[in-house]
Amino acid sequence: MKKITLTLLSMLLAVITAASFAGCGRVTQVQTEKISIFSRPTVEKVAGEHKAWNDVDSFTCYYGSLTGNAEENPVLGGEPITAMEALKQFDVAIIHSSQLYSCENAKELVKELSDNGTYVIAYISIGEDAQLHVGDGLGENGYASYYIYENGMPKMNASWGSYFVDAGNPVWQATILNTARDIMDYGVDGLFLDTLDTVDVAYSTIGGMVDLVRRLDEEFPDAKLIPNRGFTVYPYISQYVDGIMFESFTTTYNEKAEVFEDRSEADLDYNTTIACNVINRARRYDYMPVFCLDYVNEFEYSYVPQGIMNNVWQYDFISYVTYTRALDACPVPGVKPTSQRGSLALSKLGEDSGDVGTNGDTSAANLAYAENGLCKVTVDTTFAGYSGAKPLTDGFYATKENHNQVNWATESWASENNPKKDHWIQFTFNQEQTVSEVAVYWGIDGTGSNPTIYSAREAWVEAWLDGEWKRLDYFFWKTESGEYLTQQQSTVFKFDAVKTDRIRVYQPKNMGDGTSSRTDGDETVFSGIMWVSEVEIR
Q1: What is the pTM of this model?
Q2: pLDDT tens digits, one per residue of 78-91
Q3: Cα(first)–Cα(last) distance of the chain, in Å?
Q4: How far apart are CA 519 and CA 266, in angstroms?
Q5: At 442, is the pLDDT very low, low, confident or very high (cuts 50, 70, 90)?
Q6: I want to staple 316 with a disulfide (CB 3.0 to 4.6 A). Which of 77, 165, 342, 434 is the partner?
Q7: What are the residue boundaries of the structural domains of the chain, listed by start?
Q8: Given 3.40.50.11810, 3.40.50.720, 3.10.310.10, 2.60.120.260, which CATH number is that of 370-537?
């Protein structure tokens, strides 16, 4: 496990802080010395030797049996080869820990792969529980205390049938550490950390997730830790991990049609912005491999992987393409990328100096302005990829004139898109303050000369008074004919002065911008999102 120096850590934190407070910026002029980090020369694999970790450039993700065939009917033709033969052809093999438990000679097989020069990384879920457990029985309805609850029951991930957990819960952390010890006892080189995106379901758990990854790093200092996605939390755990997986970068699964398909243009823009502005922003100071897992349909496998590999290689990502969602086959693509490595690695990186100016109230009168150090900001959830609550108090708010789509991840905060849930932003002051006005500048998204302002249709401000939340001012944009107005730059809430240590901006269920949508194959409506660029409190 790499350990970055205090100097490097300080540089990384400075970069992350600059990213979070960037606001309206310019696209960075990519300098040769920066881009060269992502243009590393490739190193040939030598049987019986591990490459240096930062030199690995091939991987597979295979959850099938270690003792079976890689494919029963090879998609590229020829005779079947064993899974072990296939795994040995890669620098890194990510396998499922369940295959270790079910194989009598698993330790011997892991050693055989390691002796061949293949790093073996085993799966563990740290943000979801595959099955309901009673555990300590201190949760609602007698279930474990570590679940995230909704309507009295552990909240389920409907896509996989698993259950979201609070990674900071001490009972859960003890469970994960014990499970990790059992897995590492098989002689594997590291752990593949799945389900970190739970922090986007319950943003308040982000601190616990960071703490759990830190504890895994401390417990297994020589292990390679690779999170799967988890982009919201990645800037805070990059010092503890040795790589990251970007699953479904180029393609996605259409559950209705039950086929794999190319990402929409909007999705690709999102993913490539994450690649540059979240992952590669941190990797400039703390380099590590990025593993990019994509899926294609079986009938496409002979001709599609080359293009996918070429695309992700330009971001200095290592590609693997498979054709089974269950990852129970291990095809060997037989091709390597031919594009220029790392040529697009920083292509969407916003200005990173942090010196991009402000246009909001940065005076001492603004109780919310971060530099005044008067309060802590929390939010109910954060949409994947956004940099949390930090943009809300940086002194900059987006307008149609200054909006820069390159900086969408740091220009605003956005909640999860859930029309069945209220969304809120809470300001907790260090001590009681007198408040009479709250200004909310709504978030902006989109390219071109006329981006969309995602203003709420209804919202209110409330204060914590006499042990409960009391509404101070309510606002809704509605015409006499009953239609909601849209595209409002800001809302100013004014009320009789109150003394309080907590203020909350609240958007009720489904009251985000309900008229704006875009087409991503299906129509996507954003009425379930609260989207805000800046809040000022006076």
Answers
A1: 0.66
A2: 999 999 999 999 99
A3: 47
A4: 9
A5: very high
A6: 342
A7: 26-120+244-287+289-348, 370-537
A8: 2.60.120.260
Quote the pLDDT of residue 10: 37
Q: Which residues sit opposite 428 in a β-bridge?
A: 376, 502
Cα–Cα distance for residue pair 278/400, rounded to 1 Å: 24
Beta strands in 30-167 (DSSP E): 59-62, 92-95, 119-125, 128-129, 149-150, 153-154, 156-157, 162-164
- Work out whether strand 190-194 and strand 119-125 pair parallel, antiparallel, or are unpaired: parallel
Q: Is residue 284 predicted with pLDDT exceeding 60?
A: yes
How far apart CA 533 and CA 463 sit, in angstroms, is: 21
Q: Quick one: how far is CA 260 from the chain centroid?
A: 22
Beta bridge partners of 475: 459
Cα–chain-centroid distance for residue 125? 15
Tokens of 142: 């007698």
Does the pLDDT value for residue 12 go beyond 80?
A: no
Per-residue pLDDT for 1 more than 70?
no
Residue-averaged pLDDT of the chain: 87
In three-state secondary structure terms, 359 is coil
Q: What are phi and psi of 141, to 5 degrees?
A: 55, 25
Three-state DSSP class for 476? strand
Rounded-to-integer distance, Cα 174 and Cα 219, Å: 12
DSSP state of 325: T
**CA–CA dist 405, 407 (Å, integer):** 5
pLDDT at 252: 94
Rounded-to-integer distance, Cα 127 and Cα 393, Å? 29
- What does residue 229 show for φ and ψ, rounded to 5 degrees? 55, -125
How much is the pLDDT for 385? Answer: 66
Helices 170-184 and 206-219: crossing angle, nearest 10°? 30
pLDDT band at 30 (very low <50, low <70, confident <90, very high): very low
Per-residue pLDDT tens digits for 322-353 = 999 999 999 999 999 999 999 999 998 764 43
**What is the Cα 225 distance to its own chain's centre?**
16
Main-chain phi, psi angles of 363, to 5 degrees: -80, 170
